[in-house]
Design brief:
Distance between the termini: 50 Å
Strand order of the largest sheet: 4-5-8-6-7
Protein name: Xanthine dehydrogenase family protein subunit M
CATH class of one domain: Alpha Beta
Shape: globular
Radius of gyration: 20 Å
InterPro entries: CO_DH_flav_C (IPR005107), CO_DH_flav_C_dom_sf (IPR036683), Diverse_Substr_Oxidored (IPR051312), FAD-bd_PCMH (IPR016166), FAD-bd_PCMH-like_sf (IPR036318), FAD-bd_PCMH_sub1 (IPR016167), FAD-bd_PCMH_sub2 (IPR016169), Mopterin_DH_FAD-bd (IPR002346)
Organism: Nonomuraea diastatica
Order of helices and strands: EHEHEEEHHHHHHEEHEEEEEHHH
GO molecular function: FAD binding; oxidoreductase activity
Low-confidence stretches: none
Bound molecules: iron/sulfur cluster
Helix content: 25-40%
Keywords: Oxidoreductase
């Protein structure tokens, strides 16, 4: 790694000016993903901009309800109020990594982490995401951990973040800022499917920073659950996961949010599963129907047909847990 300069700005405005001036500069915070990518030659820069110490590590409860979480709040956040109001968020974070990594990793970095596609992380393989136009080794190779929704003939990678799946179910908003101003981007619109430009993973523009994540107040957030299926019981990325939030009144599901992880290049919202739940009692039949609906439209690859069944099971497990709570 040939690192030539390291900037430590004293405020957000200074950081944005640096990033606006030098489009090759990369912002750095917890470094849990970026440093491995730089070390392995997957990403390169001559300029890192340290975001620590800029005041982005605070949690603000909003007067109208909801909460704003600074981009540099660590994934090991121990905020009881946050855990009670948004259990799915706490469960997703806890399932995501060891305590050591969670103590370093940040909310902003978690959302922006790169795919764990093996071929992306090994420069000797063709990868359109890493080197546009070079091909996709996964399509002809081992596709067992890859997408069953929203893939293209250019890239079949999945997004690895557990946190982002919870944020999708909570309809979070990403707060972004550059020298051109501030933007609020709903999580669903923030992540991009690969299409013909798999190297562009999100709507974040060059020179723009994530400054925070906003979670709206809702009647379903407090009744929420994250279920993750992985290849081993210690920390591993999800093969398939589900974040589910429901509001039940008088025994009937009034609102439902269902998001899936490990199945697409973005946290995948299943409106079909939500519709199967809404207006119905949370019975075994409804739960089974929601699981089936969540797998609607799946297009598995050669090696990942098992993910279709896993989708049904993680959704059923999450809903059954909520029904029995
Ligand atoms: Fe690269 Fe995407 Fe293909 Fe993986 S699936 S090798 S990330 S183009």
């Amino acid at each position: 790694m040939d690192l030539l300069s390291f900037s430590r700005p004293r405020g957000i405005d200074e950081a944005l000016r640096i990033l606006g001036r030098d489009r090759q500069a990369i912002p750095v915070a917890g470094s849990t993903d970026l440093v491995t990518l730089l070390r392995d030659g997957i990403r390169a820069t001559s300029h890192l901009v340290d975001l620590n110490g800029l005041g982005l590590d605070e949690i603000h409860w909003l007067p109208g309800g909801g909460v704003r979480i600074g981009a540099l709040v660590r994934n090991a956040v121990a905020d009881t109020r946050l855990r009670r109001a948004y259990p799915v968020l706490a469960e997703a974070l806890r399932s995501g990594a060891s305590p050591q990594i969670r103590n370093r990793a940040t909310f902003g970095g978690n959302v922006l982490q790169q795919t764990r596609c093996t071929y992306y992380r090994l420069p000797e393989f063709a990868c359109n995401r890493r080197s546009p136009g070079s091909g996709c080794a996964a399509i002809q190779g081992d596709s067992s951990r890859h997408a069953i929704f929203g893939a293209s003939n250019q890239c079949v990678a999945v997004h690895p973040s557990d946190l982002s799946v919870a944020l999708q179910a909570l309809e979070a908003v990403v707060l972004a800022q550059s020298t051109a101003g501030r933007r609020r981007i709903p999580v669903d619109a923030f992540f991009r499917l690969p299409g013909t430009t798999p190297h562009v993973a999100s709507e974040l523009r060059p020179g723009e920073l994530i400054t925070g994540i906003e979670l709206p107040a809702s009647d379903h957030a407090a009744t929420s659950r994250y279920v993750k299926f992985r290849e081993r019981t210690s920390y591993a990325f999800a093969l398939v996961s589900a974040a589910v939030a429901i509001e039940v009144r008088d025994g009937v599901v009034r609102t439902a949010r269902v998001a899936l992880g490990g199945v697409a290049a973005k946290p995948w919202r299943s409106t079909a599963a939500e519709q199967a739940l809404t207006g119905n009692r949370l019975t075994e039949e409804t739960i089974t129907a929601a699981g089936e609906a969540a797998a609607d439209g799946a297009r598995p690859l050669r090696h990942n047909k098992h993910k279709v069944e896993l989708v049904k099971r993680v959704v059923r497990t999450a809903l059954t847990d909520l029904e029995q709570a």
